[in-house]
Amino acid sequence: MTNKIDIKQKLLVHSKAKVALYGDYLETYLAILTNSKYIKKINIFDLMCGEGLYQNNQKGSPLVALEKTKKVLAGKPNFNPSISFIFNDNGQSEIEYNISKINRLKSICNSIDIPENVSIQFRENDLLIAIREAIDIAANSTQTKSLFFVDPYGYKKIKPQFIKDILSNNSSELIVFLPVSHMYRFAIPAMNKKFTGSEPLYLFLLELFGEQIEDFNDVYHFIKCCKNKFQDYLEHQKIFVETFTLQRDLNNTYCLFFFTSNVLGFQKMLEAKWKNDTEQGKGFKLSKQKSLFSGITYSPYPNLLKTYLSRNDSVSNGDLFIFGLKNGYLPKHTKEAINFLKKTGTKITTSSFDDKPIKGYYISYKNYTELPDRLITYKIEQ
User: Fold this and answer.
1) Starting from the edge strand earliest in sequence, which strands make up the sheet with 283-284, in order?
2) Ranges of each domain in the chain
3) 248-293 pLDDT, tens per residue?
4) Is the pLDDT assigned to residue 294 strictly greater than 70?
5) Would you identify the CATH topology of the domain 7-284?
6) d(C-alpha 57, C-alpha 108), whole Å
7) How far apart are CA 274 and CA 277, in angstroms?
8) Whose CA is closest to 88, among 18, 167, 152, 21?
9) CB under 8 Å to 160, separation ≥6 — which residues?
10) Residue 11 pLDDT class (50, 70, 90 cuts)
């Protein structure tokens, strides 16, 4: 007789991809912050953290986060600031009977050796209470950076206002996981209030889109529209928004939404995305078949870049850096796109604000800052 594994007792493939992206970003996030002399504390809030360990020894977000933290700190023996984890979940374990998820996770974590300057707190609060508590902790901390990872069961307790509140102190970043296929299917009916239980989705969309909501072509169009509306909604806070899609099966797609006011953090999330989707940097799909037309030269990016350059008399290397990021592309992709445009007949010239010869592209975060190493301009000759 075959022992079947309950679907709730293991990480599905799309969940593995979700945890992998989170882990990759967290590793880079910690590597950067642990090099800053201005940061005294780092908060990591995993607000619906789950079991921690699943069937076949599959690790959830809390254990992956602890592994990444230990890896980063192993190379920094003199690192003094503290790292505080708050793991929260108010559900009952699907793997062990008569124990809560958080108590099971606590038991697992107690067997893990962690560095002295790393602390873990375990909570069993409702998500809304957990969010409010975490916002207060982040807001009342000085010389502190906070990363929120919110992976709710559904979307009913997630509101755009909570996202705005989390990001209000400019020292917090947020990754939130949403079941976008379900939201997409019921978006128009919910706005028309046609079915019982539609109020949470109606309020979410109303806050983001207003009374007028367009018809969506498919779930990916819905994701794009949500991303654009989040950018408008958070415009005054100067928040960057990025997405990473996760396909569970042909009928169900989920999405990680990433929010930050930090340009370098935004770049590092894009790097994590491209690491997990080397062809398009957009998301995880079940199909492993490699496209015959993959790569930047087959993407819309060269034409986007050409249009951007054509509409401006000249564009600085810093402008090109941020233009690429906002369109989901890394500096290396902008360089590839420039090369492709030149090879296909577009005449792009460069000039410098100093007397030094131009030997590269100089498209980087360092040259985007207020005191760039080099300031050069790019121009299309008509």
Assistant:
1) 118-123, 82-88, 41-46, 144-150, 172-178, 252-260, 240-249, 283-284
2) 7-284, 296-380
3) 777 889 999 999 999 999 999 999 999 988 887 787 765 655 543 3
4) no
5) Rossmann fold (3.40.50)
6) 12
7) 5
8) 152
9) 204, 207, 208, 230, 233
10) low
Query: For the segment 320-379, what is each residue's pLDDT rounded down to a tens digit?
Result: 999 999 999 999 999 999 999 999 999 999 999 888 899 999 999 999 988 888 999 999
- Three-state SS at 297: helix
pLDDT value of residue 265: 93
Half-sphere exposure of 202 (CA within 13 A, CB side): 11
Please give the distance of CA 356 from its chain centroid, rounded to a whole number: 38
Q: Which two tokens stand for residue 36?
A: 């800053």
Residue found under tokens 């009952």: 92
Average pLDDT over residues 151-168: 92
Q: Which residue has the tokens 């529209």?
A: 225
Kindly report whether the global pTM for this prediction surpasses the value 0.85.
yes
Q: What confidence tens digit (pLDDT) does each residue in 80-116 have?
A: 789 999 999 999 999 998 999 999 999 999 999 999 9
**Sign of the dihedral through C-alpha 30, 33, 35, 41:** negative
Both structure tokens of 368: 């985007």
Q: In 3D, which of 244, 203, 214, 339 has the Cα closest to residue 24?
A: 244
Residue at 78: amino acid letter: N
Tokens 């037309």, located at residue: 293
